[in-house]
């Protein structure tokens, strides 16, 4: 700037015609340059989306509300269905309409198939080696194939039904022994789902007191880990400060992760010893080795037989176990708790659901997973619960691998893109009486979890759609059917149902559901 101003002064002070000509050329050139830049910006790449005014350095961080899903929904009413937020050195983009969600998850699916991995997630997922955080490419496709086609396929899930059934029946027996006493529904369902998952992971290798203590340890650690994953981290917003870990989030996460890692190592060592001796219990009983095969057996076999070009390593294996334990337990148990709370808040829904169960199962029988396909109303109850209270209200944020255009606005490479599924699924222009809990809206059979309709995508859509949808669906429906068929439920005297939400990477009830069970089945033996 000093050189330019000095050059202009010398031209102005010059008396000869040549100097004045040079000044005229310089002014014309400068004006032309500014016009060219302005025209280029106006006619070239589209502008960034609108958004609230940002402060220097910190951007919009200081104005963020802890309840991000409702805060983002409020901003969308002011700035429109696509908006930007300055999050320190990061640019956040919030999408709140089905048409724009389609552009992100379908039209530009490959571009948005990556993640901006938070520091806490990188620690928890063995450096981001799991299916949630791994970058899109051959390694991710291998993990996806393992999960969807092998580990979480309907055939594999069918083969481990007996493991799930045992844990659900154990919970029924526990609740039967609490008759007349208040029960923390969410806590019990968390332990049930966690036991179901760990039983599916390593089967009958852990029994009795060891299983009880392991379940208690997992519950504590999973709760802490999901809280850390949802906590704003300075290291994510200002990468230059990441090495200092100013909030200690990475150190805490590393401690929790190491506890899991020790458990995984112990389970893997046990399984390898049992397999070396030729000794799964199913094999000892003369059954096919494929029957009752737990997931850990399955993964170890895949590791040994995998594609050498894209091998399934022990790190991948542990990262997938972590996904199952952390990702599967909180999401499913919270959905069950929200569903039970909504049902208890709507006596007519409770009546219809139990009526259907009586017709299909009968009070002389217990619920089996084979009954689930014959329970369309209960299926509608689950879908309505996931509409109002999606497990991941903003999904897992996407990150474009290159700059692109969405909704007429530029989305720069590396942005953190939030899809506010919670707001989309409550949009009045799409859903009639959107705040009402009305399962009947799903009885026409036109809604599923495939992500093909961008008005309803509780599990996401596109390449990064949730790999555990089939397992979550089975767990939630089987548990919910069993709770409603086995017991009547009422609130403690003077209590009212509270459906207030608490935002996190996983949506939770702010106030736990405490309810009193009363037996419904015809004979006490059905509870054993």
TrEMBL record:
Highest taxon above the source species: Eukaryota
Transmembrane annotation, as ranges: 21-39
Listed GO MF terms: heme binding; iron ion binding; monooxygenase activity; oxidoreductase activity, acting on paired donors, with incorporation or reduction of molecular oxygen
Keywords of the record: Heme, Iron, Membrane, Metal-binding, Monooxygenase, Oxidoreductase, Transmembrane, Transmembrane helix
Obligatory cofactor(s): heme
Keyword Acetylation annotated: no
Binding of heme, residues: 466
Recorded family membership: Belongs to the cytochrome P450 family.
PANTHER family: CYTOCHROME P450, FAMILY 706, SUBFAMILY A, POLYPEPTIDE 4, OS08G0547900 PROTEIN
Protein name: Cytochrome P450 76C4
């Amino acid at each position: 700037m000093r050189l330019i101003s000095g050059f202009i002064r010398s031209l102005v002070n010059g008396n000869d015609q040549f100097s004045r000509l040079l000044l005229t050329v310089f002014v014309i050139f400068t004006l032309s340059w500014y016009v060219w830049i302005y025209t280029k910006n106006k006619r070239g790449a589209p502008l960034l989306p609108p958004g609230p005014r940002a402060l220097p350095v910190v951007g919009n961080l200081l104005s963020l509300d802890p309840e991000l899903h409702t805060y983002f929904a409020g901003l969308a009413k002011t700035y429109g269905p696509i908006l930007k937020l300055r999050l320190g050195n990061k640019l956040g983009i919030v999408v709140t309409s089905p048409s724009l969600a389609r552009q992100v998850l379908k039209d530009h699916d490959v571009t948005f198939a990556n993640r901006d991995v938070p520091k806490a997630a990188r620690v928890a997922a063995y450096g981001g080696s799991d299916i949630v955080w791994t970058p899109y490419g051959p390694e991710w496709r291998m993990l996806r194939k393992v999960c969807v086609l092998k580990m979480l396929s309907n055939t594999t899930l069918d083969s481990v039904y007996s493991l799930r059934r045992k844990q659900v029946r154990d919970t029924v027996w526990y609740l039967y022994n609490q008759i007349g006493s208040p029960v923390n529904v969410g806590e019990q369902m968390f332990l049930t789902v966690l036991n179901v998952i760990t039983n599916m992971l390593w089967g009958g290798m852990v029994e009795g007191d060891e299983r009880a203590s392991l379940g208690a340890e997992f519950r504590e650690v999973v709760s802490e880990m999901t809280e850390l994953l949802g906590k704003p981290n300075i290291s994510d917003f200002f990468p230059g400060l990441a090495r200092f870990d100013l909030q200690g989030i990475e150190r805490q996460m590393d401690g929790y992760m190491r506890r899991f890692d020790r458990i995984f190592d112990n389970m893997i060592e046990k399984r390898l010893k049992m397999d070396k001796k030729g000794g799964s219990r199913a094999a000892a009983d003369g059954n096919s080795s494929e029957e009752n095969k737990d997931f850990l057996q399955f993964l170890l076999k895949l590791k040994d037989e995998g594609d050498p070009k894209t091998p399934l390593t022990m790190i991948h294996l542990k990262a997938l176990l972590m996904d199952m334990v952390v990702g599967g337990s909180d999401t499913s148990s919270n959905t069950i708790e929200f569903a039970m709370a909504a049902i208890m808040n709507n006596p007519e829904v409770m009546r219809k659901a139990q009526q259907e169960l009586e017709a299909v199962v009968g009070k002389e029988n217990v619920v089996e997973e084979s009954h689930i396909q014959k329970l369309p109303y209960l299926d509608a109850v689950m879908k309505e619960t996931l509409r109002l209270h999606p497990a991941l209200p903003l999904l897992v944020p996407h990150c474009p691998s290159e700059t692109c255009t969405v909704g007429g606005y530029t989305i720069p490479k590396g942005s953190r893109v939030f899809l506010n599924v919670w707001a989309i699924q409550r949009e009045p222009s799409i859903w009639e009486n959107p705040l009402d809990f009305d399962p009947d809206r799903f009885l026409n059979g036109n809604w599923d979890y495939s992500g093909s309709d961008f008005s309803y995508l509780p599990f996401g859509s596109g390449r990064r759609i949730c790999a555990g949808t089939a397992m979550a669906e089975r767990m939630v429906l089987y548990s919910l059917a069993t709770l409603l068929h086995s017991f009547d439920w009422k609130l403690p005297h003077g209590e009212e149902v509270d459906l207030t939400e608490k935002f996190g990477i996983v949506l939770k009830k702010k106030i736990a559901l405490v309810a009193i069970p009363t037996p419904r089945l015809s004979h006490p033996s059905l509870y054993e």
